[in-house]
Design goal:
It contains two helices and five strands; from the N terminus they run βαββαββ. It is an alpha+beta fold and 98 residues long. A five-stranded mixed β-sheet has the order 3-2-1-4-5, with helices on one face.
Length: 98
């Protein structure tokens, strides 16, 4: 049995945080611990998320653009295999991996 994959999301911060100079955040869950980490730049947030993912394999970093769509994803370690009904889905179709 493999370990459950940890997923970190790099997302834009809300308006209130952006007004204080925090424009990006890393969100995720490490076991029972919920992670919410503010950053001033997207690069800083991505670097932090990637460092955390390397220490919690299997893991994935999902980077979102300002409008919320997924820009890119990084995967670390052996990830759980997708079931046959999840493979081959196109963007926007129900039941895909994302």
């Amino acid at each position: 049995m493999s370990a459950k994959q940890t997923v970190y999301h790099v997302t834009p911060s809300g308006e209130r945080a952006a007004a204080a100079g925090v424009k990006w955040q890393v969100e995720g869950r490490e076991g029972r611990r919920v992670l919410h980490e503010p950053h001033r730049t997207q690069k800083d947030a991505i670097d932090s998320a990637r460092d955390r993912a390397k220490g919690h394999t299997p893991a994935q970093v999902v980077v979102h653009a300002r409008d919320g769509h997924i820009r890119t994803a990084y995967t670390y370690g052996d990830t759980p295999a997708a079931s046959s009904n999840e493979r081959g889905r196109r963007a926007g179709e129900r039941g895909g991996i994302f």
